[in-house]
């Protein structure tokens, strides 16, 4: 579950003011809007990557407004995948577990499980360079899910993919809330992605967030400061 109540933050000349939205547990939600309208800012505020001036962020019923990104236990997939290029695919998939000092055998089991599901087992011993867009995004998704986060945030994860690869990724993502037991908020500018994936769809347009599919959420204002 993701609850954002009366969130306000500033980034340069851009202000996100008094924004609220609610994503029920186990829901696949999408936040739509044109490039540059502030979608990523909303996502980063939820993840704890942007300081906020006021408001409350709750994840699975726990207030995390002042928690660090690590304490929030959020899986995050940035737009470009942002793989660690000096590491192997195996080490990328296991990174979140390794930094938490999980036993090596547990990391290996989880990495193998993810690699099987994502279809990247043949890449495990390869460095994370020269991969296709689809491979990069599958590995970034696996890395984000490795530690069983209850919330997954994705920033336009399909935007750089060709149509055929994007459709395959959509099929993979469709069952994500049930398979991974995760609540998803996926930022996109694509109505096709929203129609295919969204139980709940928000739109950020003309300075407002509104719900365009589903019954949750509130319409709130986002204003540009001159």
The CATH architecture assignment of the domain at 2-82 and 149-224 turns out to be 3-Layer(aba) Sandwich
Number of helices: 8
Q: Report low-confidence residues grouped into runs of 5 or more.
A: 216-226
Report the major sheet: 7 strands, mixed
Overall morphology: globular
The CATH class of the domain at 2-82 and 149-224 turns out to be Alpha Beta
CATH domain topology of the domain at 2-82 and 149-224: Rossmann fold
**Rg from Cα:** 17 Å
The overall pLDDT, averaged over residues, is 89
What is the end-to-end distance? 34 Å
How would you sum up this structure, described in words?
Strand 9 (200-205) and strand 10 (208-213) form a beta hairpin. The N and C termini lie far apart (34 Å). This protein has eight helices and twelve strands. The strands form two sheets. It has a seven-stranded mixed sheet, sandwiched between helices. A five-stranded antiparallel sheet has the order 5-4-1-2-12, with helices on one face. The protein has 226 residues and is of the alpha/beta class. The protein has a domain at 2-82 and 149-224: Rossmann fold. Helix 3 (89-98) crosses helix 4 and helix 3 (89-98) runs parallel beside helix 5.
């Amino acid at each position: 579950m993701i609850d954002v109540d009366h969130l306000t933050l500033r980034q340069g000349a851009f202000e996100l003011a008094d924004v609220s939205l609610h994503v029920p547990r186990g829901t696949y939600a999408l936040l739509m809007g044109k490039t540059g309208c502030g979608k990523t800012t909303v996502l980063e505020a939820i993840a704890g990557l942007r300081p906020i001036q006021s408001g409350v962020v709750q994840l699975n019923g726990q207030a995390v407004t002042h928690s660090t990104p690590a304490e929030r236990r959020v899986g995050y997939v940035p737009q470009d995948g942002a793989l660690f290029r000096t590491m192997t695919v195996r080490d990328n998939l296991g990174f979140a577990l390794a930094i938490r000092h999980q036993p090596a055998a547990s990391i290996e089991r989880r990495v193998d499980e993810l690699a099987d599901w994502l279809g990247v087992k043949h890449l495990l011993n390869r460095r994370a360079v020269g991969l296709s867009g689809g491979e990069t995004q599958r590995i970034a998704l696996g890395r984000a899910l490795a530690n069983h986060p209850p919330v997954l945030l994705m920033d336009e994860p399909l935007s750089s993919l060709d149509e055929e690869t994007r459709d395959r990724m959509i099929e993979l993502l469709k069952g994500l809330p049930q398979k991974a037991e995760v609540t998803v908020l996926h930022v996109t500018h694509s109505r096709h992605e929203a129609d295919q994936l969204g139980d709940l769809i928000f739109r950020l347009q003309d300075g407002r967030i509104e719900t365009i599919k589903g019954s949750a959420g509130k319409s709130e204002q986002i204003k540009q400061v001159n």
